[in-house]
Amino acid sequence: MSSPRILVVEDRESLRLMLERALLREGYQVVTAASAEKAVQRLEDNEFQLVLTDLKLPGLSGIEVLKASRERQPQAPVVVLTAYGTVHTAVEAMKLGAADFLEKPVEIDDLFQLVGSLLGGDAEKTAFSVDGGPTIIGNHPKMRAAFRLLERVARTDSTVLLTGESGTGKELFAHALHALSRRGQGPFVAVNCAAIPETLMENELFGHERGAFTGAHRRQQGRFEMAKSGSLLLDEIGELPLAVQSKVLRVLEERTFERVGGGETLTADVRLVAATNRDLEAMVAAGEFREDLYYRLEVFPIELPPLRERRSDIPLLAQHLLDRIAQRQGLVRRSLTEAALSLLQRYEWPGNVRQLANILERAMIVGEGPRLDAAELKQLLSNLGGKSDRQMICDALIEAEGDRHKAAEILGISYRTLQRRVKEHDLGGFPEYRE
To answer: Scanning 212, 235, 283, 339, which has its CA 20 to 30 A from the CA of 175?
Structure first.
């Protein structure tokens, strides 16, 4: 069996030769190109098992090499080379299908490790797990890209912004990020910014001194202190009040803060992770979110795809969830019929993984027999499928008898997201008998 063939695209001759010689010594076949135009021609004339390309090239950019490779030889993973400090560009490349990236100057050991893992079958991994962290199921390219970004940033102390629709697993990623980091032995503290009243948010994050306000009978630590030497997750950060945003910005810039009612300046020894299901850039344009805080948070963004964009993961994910539900609830383990899996893969899942988990748990409780079939799931899904967003919310509110927290759980979305949609659809007084 012949050794894997690698295409190296780099305009700087010294680096191109160094990469070529290093890979040849490892036993790989190597073809080189000094420009994107030549690389595209090489892709038409040869079959490659991996492409290594600089992003900044004369003429066409490395992005064009990436696009050509994904179009002509989609089975070949593409690794992009990026200058130090331009990680954001590499993240954008990964969104377009790059398998991973390396920062210049290239460390040969890192190169060998990455190439070896990509050519050694890592794409077949169906789950991401780390000691002390959660197991995250996913083999779709968008999930694999998110996993690689997570592994890369975990070894640093950089601020991470997790984006994605409600229910896509942002908190799981935050836990995994913490477990992989050098702060993994420290505390992991999570704050849901949508669940705390605006008047209490500053106190919740920064704590207070005794006598700071009526009822403050003793000093209380805030979440930044509780997370010392560990990680702090600010979930649904788009709901953070503007007045508190400036104080969080100061922590990111100066790494200091004061308790409410106190004069002592404290050091914030935490790794900040933010998560949101909202478009922060649009909020900045609307004056609802501070622009300077947005750019501080977006140091390293990781976007999690909605479930409808990775339907191929649903069979693996559904069985994993069923096994967890059975273990947690003390139920007999069950599997899914092919018809049931097909039904789950056709559904749009507006509430993503959280909604899938809720549906499967209800099916496990009411169903019988060793396998869940399509008929058992169809009834549960028919209450939501094919309906407008407004009708889905109405039905959930009716089923929950007006309890919005319960309705949000039924829909698989956060309470604050439900509140926003209720307002958008003018359902403030619905259902009338509970308002």
So the answer is: 283
